[in-house]
Design goal:
This protein has about 250 residues and is mostly beta strands. Helices cover about 15% and strands about 35% of the residues. The protein has three helices and nine strands, in the order E-E-E-E-E-H-H-H-E-E-E-E. It has a nine-stranded antiparallel beta sheet, with helices on one face.
């Protein structure tokens, strides 16, 4: 439970800044209209979360108001190993109090075309001092979608997920990131100053996932065979907030 003024985890702003686009204005895939001026994304119907970085000067607290400003920071066009076009869009979110930006997030979204899932890369010597097993199912995905106002149909509409090239409902990339951040926050004595994460392969409903990490700050979500789903790095804060980048 939390009370007014309690400090919140590093990804807590995700629960309170969801998109409020009316349902009638959502796209066929469940997403809000895409930002104008993004080159070539209209020819890339598949939208996936690729990773991001969250840096904070201090923790957010329950009951406080912050101003949120967002912008498209960069667009990069490239091609996958199997020849598919990829548009990486970097979105930036600044959360400010009356005086300054207190949390800055950069979020990488990839627009592409449907593909057949490929094998996952084995993890390279992961830190396994801490470990947790999870088994995402339809209920977990539904609740996380609701919590973050995410109406993307790949997370709850099996028919649509399969038409998008997936064998089953897709586990949210942000859900894996939140679980990895929680692994740190539940085991370490120091809060996170900066949290960076990268999605390496999609995870699916009904698939066992192992979350691992340790005091090194290296965290990973692995499949049953030890293949990488997501990696993350937690940089601990030094001293008391406000924290200064070093």
């Amino acid at each position: 439970s939390v009370a007014g003024g309690d400090e919140l985890g590093i990804l807590a702003h995700w629960w309170s800044m969801g998109d409020l686009t009316p349902t009638r204005d959502l796209g066929v895939d469940g997403h809000p209209p895409r930002a104008t001026g993004l080159p070539l994304v209209d020819g890339r119907p598949v939208r996936m979360f690729a990773g991001g970085t969250v840096d904070r000067v201090r923790p957010l607290r329950t009951g406080e108001w912050v101003h949120v400003a967002s912008d498209v920071a960069a667009v990069k066009e490239t091609t996958s190993k199997d020849g598919r076009p990829l548009s990486f869009v970097e979105e930036r979110y600044d959360l400010s109090d009356d005086d300054r930006v207190v949390v800055r997030e950069t979020r990488s979204i990839v627009y592409t075309t449907p593909a057949t899932p490929t094998g996952r890369r084995p993890a390279d010597d992961p830190d396994t001092a801490w470990s947790r097993e999870i088994l995402p199912d339809e209920r977990m995905l539904f609740r996380f979608s609701a919590l973050t106002w995410n109406a993307h149909r790949i997370h709850y509409d099996l028919g649509f997920a399969r038409s998008d090239g997936h064998p089953d409902l897709v586990v949210h990339g942000p859900l894996l990131a939140a679980l990895l951040a929680d692994l740190w926050e539940g085991n370490a004595d120091t809060p996170i100053r900066t949290f960076s994460f990268r999605a390496l392969a999609p995870a699916f409903a009904g698939e066992a996932i192992r979350l691992v990490g340790g005091p090194s700050g290296r965290l990973a979500a692995l499949d049953a065979d030890g293949g990488h789903l997501m990696t993350a790095v937690a940089t601990p804060a030094k001293g008391g907030p406000p924290w200064i980048s070093t």
